[in-house]
Specification:
The chain is of the alpha/beta class. The strands form three sheets. A five-stranded mixed β-sheet has the order 5-1-6-13-7, with helices on both faces. Helix 2 packs across helix 8 and helix 2 packs antiparallel against helix 9. The protein is globular, with a radius of gyration of 23 Å. It comes from Paludibacterium purpuratum.
């Protein structure tokens, strides 16, 4: 009789071990497309998603039970097209643009605040301070990352009417090289991203200290918050979407409160990423 009871205990223990292992393995994989050309926030190196936002999402993943986050570096325009088609669930880091991107139905809690600043060749400011945005910049040629919608309604209204000219390129580095070569007049992007990228370009020998000094910061245009954006065109393809967003938001809140996001940004500012 004692032997029988021992057998039951061992069997139950074995079953618990099996079910525990199965539960640990039963994770839903969530793919998040990440911008492949937006350093230091999000870019690609050796086919891997690199940058502040991928690091934030990897840190968040540690606080999300039942899900495994897969980051897929993707050209930004293609990422938006895939969300619009409903073939992919999420992309990071869109700004909040409900009118321009109606196919993004849900946004996560904010990841970071980005300060959008105008960078121009020094000669652009030689005749006027150009502090009024965008009125003091009419007639100029702006570089823009593919698929980016920075600058505000008045800026894009001026662009549509031909009062401001836009020329797109794949990423910050391409636009900054064009700015150095005076092929564009100005470039509009996040202040931190541009400052770090200019430092990297200088360390790689892509521009000299003298060339860097020819790029001048203009007015701050806006402060933008970055999110993970989720498609609303999936027709139920991702039934776990609402649950995942809820858990991601809780994880991002934890990272903000613990200071982890500040530490991640600090590593990039100090060149220790």
């Amino acid at each position: 009789m004692g032997q029988f009871r021992l057998g039951v205990v061992v069997t139950a223990s074995a079953l618990a071990s099996v079910f525990g292992t199965t539960a640990a393995l039963a994770q839903t994989t969530v793919t998040i497309l990440t911008d492949d050309a937006y350093p230091p926030y999000s870019y690609m190196d050796k086919q891997q998603a690199i940058g502040i936002y991928p690091d934030i999402l990897r840190a968040a993943a540690k606080h999300i039970a039942g899900y495994r986050i897969e980051l897929k570096p993707t050209p930004w325009r293609r990422a938006m097209a895939q969300l619009q088609a409903g073939t992919e669930l999420a992309a990071a880091p869109p700004y909040y643009r409900p009118l321009e991107r109606p196919y993004i139905g849900s946004y996560s809690a904010p990841m970071l605040d980005e300060h959008v600043v105008v960078f121009c060749g020094k000669q652009i400011f030689s005749d006027t301070p150009r502090q009024r945005w965008p009125d003091d910049f009419l007639g100029l040629l702006f570089g823009n990352n593919f698929g980016f919608l920075l600058g505000g309604d008045n800026f894009w209204r001026a662009a549509r009417s031909g009062k401001i000219h836009i020329e797109e390129a794949p990423g910050s580095r391409a636009n900054l090289l064009k700015l150095v070569d005076k092929r564009i007049d100005c470039y509009l992007n996040d202040q931190l991203a541009v400052r770090i990228e200019l430092g990297r370009m200088q360390s790689l020998g892509l521009l000299s200290a003298a060339q860097r000094q020819q790029i001048q910061e203009g007015p701050t245009v806006s402060t933008e918050q970055s999110y993970v954006g989720f498609t609303n065109r999936d027709n139920g393809k991702f039934p776990f979407k609402d649950d995942f967003i809820k858990k991601l938001n809780a994880a991002l809140t934890t990272l903000h409160q613990s200071g982890e996001i500040t530490r991640i940004v600090g590593r990039y500012l100090n060149g220790k990423n």
